[in-house]
Design a protein that fits this description.
Strand content of chain A: 15-25%
Shape of chain A: globular
CATH architecture of the largest domain in chain A: Alpha-Beta Barrel
Oligomer: homodimer
Structural class of chain A: alpha/beta
CATH class of the largest domain in chain A: Alpha Beta
Number of helices of chain A: 16
Number of strands of chain A: 16
Distance between the termini of chain A: 33 Å
CATH superfamily of the largest domain in chain A: Aldolase class I
Number of domains of chain A: 3
């Protein structure tokens, strides 16, 4: 089969829905939009942007992605590219209100889809849904039909397909097709299928479902036994033409199928699979880094395709030999997935042009950074180049970009605040003296707090103390406070910041990594926080649950300064966070597909 | 096929040989022995302990593992266990000196094996070995024959089997069998086979090699496309009865096949594979943590089986449903792989018994810690319990164990040093004033330097300074020095320590992670160092190459104190490191199988 006549594989990315269900991950709206833009540039065909009914925050995120990212064509045109807008998809249970809400969230995208799911296994029908098989078929007919009355592109997923009776499953799928479904997605919900089992299931369903020829079959695999990629490929070999995947394979438990692994298998084995892809593989590494940074889910060095070591060939013979005699497969060159190998360090004399070229090489070209972000990154680069004798490495550059993105992404999206300097005071040690409008007063470019001064004393047998001065944009003044801690200088620093901002904060996660080798390497700090003692929330899918979480990233040669900056960045997001955003419990809106 | 009549799968672990080839990983002898002991308890059948001819250090490590770990039967007896000593294996090129050296290194183990390899692809024969096919066959005959004259258990690997002519490969394997090979290992060297290709290759070789019935076929897969586990399982389904694997899948590039993934596939799908295993899966998590800590190769949260999130089921329905209706497969319960779910925190009133029980639950029972290590861990635990209000979590416990192991493992194994206090001086800022015998003067329990005092001042716009006092066991005195730094308090602290020890050190890697949630979490610091400006080395496999590297780990609520402790731990290892140990270039002894 020639490449031209092959079916195009539909990449359905669920990083923002199933990936975001990873324990500890909660992306806010701005972060989701940032990732969605990158996935659009990458060439993703369908983006599952969220589960709109789960909360007003989810609805808002999906709606903004539909409006702002749905129409984008940057990076999507040309030979071998998708040449269409990205389809924006919203998830819905088989309930009219869910479906209507999902439609309302996605409808402004030029191309949009509703993804409806209902369990089809007897155990789910009996214990969870408390309906009979007949009622199940009726509900599929009614709800897929309702969805189709709103929108021409409808995906249906039989939840727990793996344990559903096969003939009933075929009946359920045929019902969905008759009611108007255009894509049928078959989840290996618990990640326990072998490739031969999963391939056989896809084949069986295609052969035994009435109307199967008129729809696209889709894979949805989990990696509990390390076989998600193999199962997905087995699905493709057996007729699936859509794959549900996430960047870095993030997702609940051991995660979902990795987008980059599936695509590179097809890319390197053009003769082994009956499909072609339209993804720009050169953006894999930078996309992986972005998702790693914003989700806080670190990628291990020995991860296939996007791990730091994936292309470190220690023995030269090996790679040479392969290149001399590439036969049945194409070897992956590092640059094919956006890993630059030259690793030519930039120095203090490198100008704006060299800096820009390097950013482009690393996958941050064109619209990846706004003008303001580019200027901020260049300023940070010059500071860094002055202090680093060995030059600024690719690792440092990735960290710089993450830092700039983090510090310029506030939580909310409302207009800049009115001047509120009358509220300024040198100290604010209670949580009640913030101006009323402070919570919604942050725009992207108007950060509430900035670090002006920091002084820390610590050691073995010494009580750590930190003195911090922040500029408060709302009060229009610098505020200084001091704190001590039992548990080291970072805690003292964070406590002093908390005293200044007057909000009780819970530190959920704290991580420091070096960006490259050597003593003057940058420390990259990631912190994740939430308000302590959040009030219970109402109006969501289910009561109770977790509070919104905020990530801050910063890089500095001084780990304590980096920690303070990261913490302040997270605080700015938390304070700027639209109160209506992301209010839903994270756990409550998890679904098992 | 009933479980009783199934073939037993032979687990050949190469964490210490191929795994150690991961970029940045260099395990010293004590670390290798520690891992070898754990792999023995786990039930590994064959342990590839190293490449003895590569360097005197490699030889010494393999020999000590053969002597000290080879005879161990702890954890290996009982129903469903291996009930035999672990086979200790040494790798050798097809050269008489290599084979003799490998044999000398492993021969003291009750059960031992020599693993001989030779390339069989035309490209390797022509460009690398510069021999004809006939010469290749002759060399296999001679060298496998020579190995067999020393030892009854011989493994042969055709390097670059994937690109070798199939009929010549069968001829080469038949030659190896005739010369006495008992195991034939088929590497997918570049990790680019699909499962169906690799399975077909194993099948073809078994069907077309003369004498194939009398030997064991073995898989050796790499994970470049995320398919190592699937390829290995395809090998088993097509007749392989040995699998070459590493803990956490570490190895060059994207790594080797994960031991834990292959075993858990067989464990959960007893009816899908024609083999049974004899591994104690309950030790997976603690073994994974040990390899992670000692190798410095972090495991991502969404890694199958051993990732931190692998068993975090956020939605209860899901797991319940599975447990109610387990049909064709067995679900993995977290405790099956050593993940404790209760996560009952220990508090300041917890006694020695509760502490010990918790350690056992976490997979550190019995001989996992020496008495001295247990006492040290308990003392650290009591200190920590005093300062942590929320109690000591499982994450903290794993970190404590890693810390104690790191701080009690010196590099060398020679006798304690003679008193050398006459060399003591308040300052030692050059590298020439160490006593002559200081380099080989460290025994396991006699650490050269201990941290007595630390005082750090830093901040934004402040030049960081650190004052450090170390006790020097060789000089028998406390030594204090101070340093400043351009790049933060950690650099200042490390510089002050360098001044005291008088050795120029290169910082290769620095990482901090929190062990659990919350502000009083432990910071776990890992540093990796090498001597700066190492002299070129002689007598190794090849000239040039990299210098030995040393890891130090420490945990403390204060990140700077933890950093100082980790650095000192690494320094103690470096200084105690037997000069003859690990002298070979790491890169030079890499082989592509």
């Amino acid at each position: 089969m020639s490449e031209q006549t092959k079916d195009k594989l539909i990449i359905f990315d669920t990083t923002l829905r199933d990936g975001e269900q990873s324990p500890g991950v909660t992306l806010n709206t701005e972060e989701k939009i940032e990732i969605a833009r990158q996935l659009s540039r990458l060439g993703v065909n369908v983006l599952e942007a969220g589960f709109p009914v789960a909360s007003p925050g989810d609805f808002n995120a999906v709606q903004r992605i539909a409006r702002e990212v749905g129409p984008l064509m940057e990076g999507r045109t040309g030979e071998g590219r998708v040449n269409q807008e990205m389809v924006i998809c919203g998830l819905a249970r088989s309930v009219q209100h869910d479906i209507q809400t999902a439609y309302d969230a996605v409808k402004e995208a030029p191309r949009h889809r509703i993804h409806v799911f209902l369990a089809t296994s007897d155990i789910h029908l009996e214990f969870k849904l408390k309906i009979t098989r007949e009622q199940c078929l009726q509900r599929i007919k009614d709800m897929v039909g309702f969805a189709r009355s709103l929108c021409a592109d409808i995906e249906f997923s039989p939840e727990d397909a793996g344990r559903s009776d096969h003939s009933f499953l075929c009946e359920a799928l045929a019902t969905a097709i008759k009611a108007g479904a255009t894509t049928l997605n078959i989840p290996d919900t618990v990640g326990y299928n072998t490739p031969s089992e999963y391939g056989a299931l896809i084949k069986h369903l295609r052969e035994n479902t009435e109307g199967a020829d008129s729809v696209v079959f889709s894979t949805h695999c989990h990696n509990d036994l390390g076989l998600a990629t193999a199962n997905t490929l087995a699905g493709i070999s057996n007729g699936a033409r859509q794959v549900e995947v996430t960047i870095n394979g993030i997702g609940e438990r051991a995660g979902n199928t990795s987008l980059e692994e599936v695509v590179m298998n097809i890319h390197t084995h053009p003769h082994s699979y009956p499909v072609q892809h339209t993804v720009n593989t050169r953006l894999f590494f930078s996309t992986s880094r972005m998702v790693e940074d914003l989700s806080g889910m670190a990628v291990q060095a020995n991860k296939a395709i996007v791990g730091r070591n994936a292309f470190l060939h220690e023995s030269g013979i090996h790679q040479d030999g392969v290149l001399k005699n590439k036969q049945t497969y194409e070897i992956i060159r590092p640059e094919d997935v956006g890993v630059t190998t030259g690793n030519l360090a930039l120095g203090k004399h490198s100008g704006r042009h060299a800096f820009k070229t390097k950013l482009e090489d690393l996958g941050y070209g064109g619209p990846a950074l706004s003008d303001a972000q580019f200027q901020a990154a260049f300023a940070k680069f010059k500071d860094l180049a002055d202090s680093k004798k060995a030059g600024v490495t690719d690792g440092d550059m990735h960290a710089l970009v993450a830092d700039v993105r983090s510090s310029t992404l506030a939580g909310g999206s409302s207009a800049p605040p009115p001047a509120a300097s009358e509220a300024a005071d040198k100290r604010s040690s209670t949580s009640t003296d913030l101006p009323e409008d402070a919570h919604e007063a942050q725009a992207e470019s108007a950060l509430r707090f900035t670090l002006k001064h920091l002084q820390v004393f610590t050691g073995l047998g010494i009580t750590p103390t930190a003195t911090v001065t922040l500029h408060d944009a709302v009060r229009g003044a610098d505020v200084t406070d001091v704190a001590l801690a039992n548990n080291g200088p970072i805690e003292a620093t964070f406590s002093a910041i908390q005293r200044i901002i007057g909000v009780d904060i819970q530190l959920l996660n704290f991580n420091v990594a070096a960006t490259s080798e050597g003593q003057d390497t940058l420390g990259k700090v990631a912190v994740r926080i939430a308000r302590a003692a959040q009030e219970p929330e109402e109006g969501c899918l289910a009561p109770g649950g977790s509070v919104p979480k905020f990530t801050g990233l910063a890089t500095n040669v001084d780990i304590i300064t980096a920690s303070a900056s990261a913490y302040i960045s997270a605080v700015n997001r938390m304070i700027g966070h639209d109160e209506s955003d992301n209010r839903a419990s994270h756990k409550d809106r998890k679904v098992d597909i």
